[in-house]
Amino acid sequence: MQVFYFLKFSLLCFFLFSCSTLETKKISFDFLKKIPNKYQLQARGSVEFNDDYINFSLNWIKEKNQFKITLYGPLSLGNLEITGFIFNNKIANLKIDNKKLFGSFKTFMLAKYGWYLPLESIPSWLFLGKIKDDNWQVNYLSSKLFANHQLPKKIVLINSKQKIKITALMKKIYF
């Protein structure tokens, strides 16, 4: 009887092993040489922080050095609009819901939500494939053709120090 179970188990293991050797498709990207001066991106995603999950949608518009980010959903308990300028990869003149933010965006995020995401790094992660913040691990899980470039479609950001995981799914990117 034990021989029968051993054979059955061996066949099952062999079957499972043969299934795991299926060919995997390599994800390819066609990152840009520089961040576009003008773009709009729409995405949705989730944030996992302290065993809590929050879903969100966002619309990010950038023209020259000015940007406007609108977050929709429970993350901001309604809508949250962030505007400002980016000069030399630094955020300046930041406003949240048309109120000038005194202090840094990092301080605001930590006080309001308990975690921080460097806004200035996101365009580099998305368009250039470059990680400028050592605290974040960026995983590109799938790609899609946006404006004739194979760019990341699904990105997972993990910060082990803050114990946060952000999953973002790019829906549309316009140049």
Automatic annotation (TrEMBL):
InterPro entries according to UniProt: LolA/LolB/LppX, OM_lipoprot_LolB
Q: Which UniProt keywords apply?
A: Chaperone, Membrane, Protein transport, Transport
Report if keyword Chaperone is assigned.
Answer: yes
Keyword set includes Aminoacyl-tRNA synthetase: no
Could you state one GO cellular component term attached to this entry?
cell outer membrane
* Any Pfam family the entry gives: LolB
Protein location: Cell outer membrane
- Can you supply a Gene Ontology BP term from the record? protein transport
Task: Tell me the first and last residues of the signal peptide.
Answer: none
Complex formation: Monomer.
Q: What is this protein called?
A: Outer-membrane lipoprotein LolB
**What does the record give as the organism's lineage?**
unclassified sequences, metagenomes, ecological metagenomes
